Amino acid sequence: MSDASAPPPLDKLAIKDAGVREAEFSQRVLIHSILGRPDMGAGLAGQSVRIGGWVKTGREQGKGAFAFLEVNDGSCPGNLQVIVEADVYKLSDVVSTGTCIHVEGELHLPPDGVKQKIELKVKKVIDVGTVDAGKYPLPKTKLTLEFLRDVMHLRP
Description:
Elements: H1 12-17, H2 31-35, E1 48-61, E2 66-72, E3 80-85, E4 100-108, E5 119-129, H3 145-150
Parallel strand pairs: 3-5
Antiparallel strand pairs: 1-2, 1-4, 2-3, 4-5
């Protein structure tokens, strides 16, 4: 039984033709495949992709209507901006630094005057690994030496 409101399946041929590589054992696309292009991913606008990674920064906007997330999967130093709307998923669970997220959505060109060249508008949240800020106390800013003295395993 199929759901008429479900998003269409990923078009693997269109993604492959665009030069975007999927991970070997999943349908996840590496962020490096999107941001590592000469046009910084702008040529991929309109493509449906599935990404996974960790939230570097997150902030709710529009009185809790949506959230901007900077997601990194470790494949490159750059972060992909991801937009999650409140009707898709509970925003308070995804905006914390360190949250593990696996989402599916469509790549869009952002409005003029912003630093990123491409952003992902989420249609479906597949999995979220929430993080407890008390047990994972990493701030958005650079870690100070005083902080690293208390959390020794983060020193390297």
